[in-house]
Amino acid sequence: MLCASRAQVYETKRSWDYLGLGYQHHQPPGLLERGKEGDGILIGVVDTGIWPESRSFDDSGYGPVPSRWKGRCDAGVVGPIRCNKKIIGARYYRKDADLSEVARDYDSPRDANGHGTHTASTAAGSLVSYANFHGLGAGTARGGAPRARLAIYKVCWGSGRCWKADVLQAIDDAVGDGVDILSLSINGYGYSPASLGAVRKGITVVFSGGNDGPVPQKINNAVPWVITVAASTIDRSFPTDIILGNGRTLVGQSMCYASSDPGYKQLVAFDSCSVVPQYLTLLADKIVLCFDRAFAAAVDADRETSLLLSGLTKAGARGAIIARFPRSILPDCSGITCVVVDYDVGVQIANYARVETASGRIPVVHVSPAFNIVGSQVMSPRVAAFSARGPSIDYPDLVKPDITAPGVNILAAVRDGYQFMSGTSMACSHVSGIAALLKVVHPDWSPAAIKSALVTTAYTTNERGCPVEAEAVPRKVADPFDYGGGHIDPNRAMDPGLVYDIDPNDYVNFFRYTNRASNSTSGQNHLKLPSGAIPDLRKSGVGSSRTYDLNLPSISIPDLKETPVKVRRTVTNVGDTHGRYMAVVRSPAGVKMEVEPSVLHFRASGEKLHFEVTFTPLHKVQGGFTFGSLTWVHRHGNNSVRIPIAVRVIIRDFFSDTS
Prior knowledge:
Glucose Oxidase, domain 1; 7-stranded mixed β-sheet; globular
């Protein structure tokens, strides 16, 4: 590495402090304290397994395993594990798995990949002092619900591939084992009806939304009964000084860490990163500047960056400066100095190299080590470029994702220490930990109530009062198909005032049955449906069955024509015994939106009141989605209960907008 050492300032794990779930003394007490750090809650993690020897799973100070736990600990054959009072159960599934992937892994619940260990420790890891990645992000690592217990279900093998039948069986087993929260940082379609079977048993199911952003219609796991999570940044960055041979200093972002080599190295500039592999034999002991000009999805672009860095490392290059579109995720440097800059900084570095070369001098550059900056000087949150966007192709009459949470450069446990990872997987595990805390505070809340509390209390503006942005090309103001209700606000979710609750049976009663066969209906905990039938959500907007009539904390109408559409909702008072709420409407552009009644007067806790929202198009047009919101505001300002609205005005059904 070319990066010289720099002292680090120690902090607690930043993402939880950023969410207001640090160990500060709240007045009144915050969710972490009132939620007893998740004590007594069982979180099931369906992922790549676990590395139980990590300090994040130390069970010191834990009491006996709860008697309601019905699961088991399968030690395994190759790389066997032992459970403890923190990791109270572990299973592994490979009935459907590719044998070549299994051969690259441990034949046990042990995690060869690192992903499952990272997500489990993020959700419920024990406190670990002085956790860091080569000095970066140093502090006390812990999960959101550090006193919760973990049950591990390994369904993904080798490179992280997962198989549907194994996932379905794991969900089924988790329900029977007695978990309270199910955290699934995996791609899919919500694994219906297994996940619905879990929800019907009172289990809150949290899924990652996928990493195929920023292009639209890539959202995963978009069924209405689960919490689908987007990923966003926190108020931490890792700036890196780039010092040119003429003494000028520019700033990039990097995970570059300590080294004993502070010297300058020759700089070689390329107009495009795509041509660099042709010149690898000429780049030994040099630092490369190149421009990533791809418009690919963020996950594809980052994969290409990783391949480039790997090639440079093998060629003996000393580093890379990559100019690209703004994107928060930082590449894994993998033993080589690597810095990302925006195009403006990249052009300035390239101009320096051009002038030096034209003058007969060798351009040189020095890259300093990265350091931590946290707090208000870092603009946050921003929805990550890789975070998958809605609307769902299958279910456009749902707002998905539901919520966004920290998922960029998250430090958590892996096999031999702690590592930064980014993805909606990391965001999913944050929401799972928060759901565990809410379950302690409100043990009688249904999964729908927990979801509603998270969505309706989320925020859409940052601490400066500016709208939350979404990384894309170009960067834009975020909308509900980027982040659902907004950015998660755990302490507000503890006291939402009103919730949009749903009897799990409503999911079944609402969607009409079809004869579409499914091999996923086996198992005693799955949804009981007529033989060979499951709810056909893809047809839910056809005929008399409308998904947007389900009592969700959001409304999406993808097919508003000339005739006004009325949508009914019911809210339950979980706040003051006597509460008066007034409707504040922000209509989507091109749509008239009316609420009746516009005032709700509650006289008892637990009381349910109904209202209708009427949507009328103001123009006859084949349009796109526009966005708004409906907020119920308590007359004394105690609570503000907001749901996102998405409406598309159309003239004809199934119109291809390809212009």
